[in-house]
Amino acid sequence: MPFLRSIRVRLTLWYVLLLAVILAVFSVVVFLGLRENLNSNLNDSLDNRADLVLSLLSYEDGRPSLGEIEIPGDPLEGEHFVRVFDSSGDVIFDNSAPEGSVPLDEDEVAAALAGSTSRESAESSRDQLRILTTPIRHDSAVVGAVQVGLSEGDVRETLTTLLVIIAVAYPLTL
Fold first, then answer.
1. Phi and psi of 117, rounded to 5°?
2. Per-residue pLDDT tens over the stretch 128-164
């Protein structure tokens, strides 16, 4: 191959290879950074939603109760659910029906009733959800648990769109 002996061709190939590696590393860093940021924001939204629910609880004889939750202009309307459990693990409030059949992990509820907070991903009949289960404390005792779930759909759509952009832009840039 006599054309590979040319210094011009070899330098051009080295520059293209170097550019390909730099673009690949840049794309991976952008993707991983955005994924971490979006997941962190989703977790923050879950924490805020759980704090809101905890602030709306009322207590009758040390047992938590909750009326309907309606937040005017809620940007997450239809993309979340709330469940409240009493100290024996019985459901006393559940608005998860619009999300489809959301699985109930009794181990997570038992852990919350024991005082620990947990996060998990679960799949409903409609969507992939991130679920936060946290204890309800009243007078320094755990009197129940609250479970809040948010759709992971926006996070997945954003990351999928970014992957499509990278898949198109990478070869075009090279």
1. -105, 140
2. 889 999 999 888 888 889 999 998 989 999 999 999 9
